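Reply to dn_fold:

You asked what the input looked like. This is it:
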Amino acid sequence: MNAQVIIIAIVFVAAVYYIGRKMYNSLFAKKGCGTDCKCGVDFSDIEAPKQK
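and this is what came back:
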């Protein structure tokens, strides 16, 4: 095997790994947020509690 074929094979394997990882993460991503970040909640209707 010459060097060009080896380099192309390495780039191809890296690309397949990258695409596979992206697909896996998009298919098996966590549904929603498990933390208290309030990223998908609209709190515009709720009044803030009054401080004493």
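Residues 1-28 form one domain.
Hope that clears it up.
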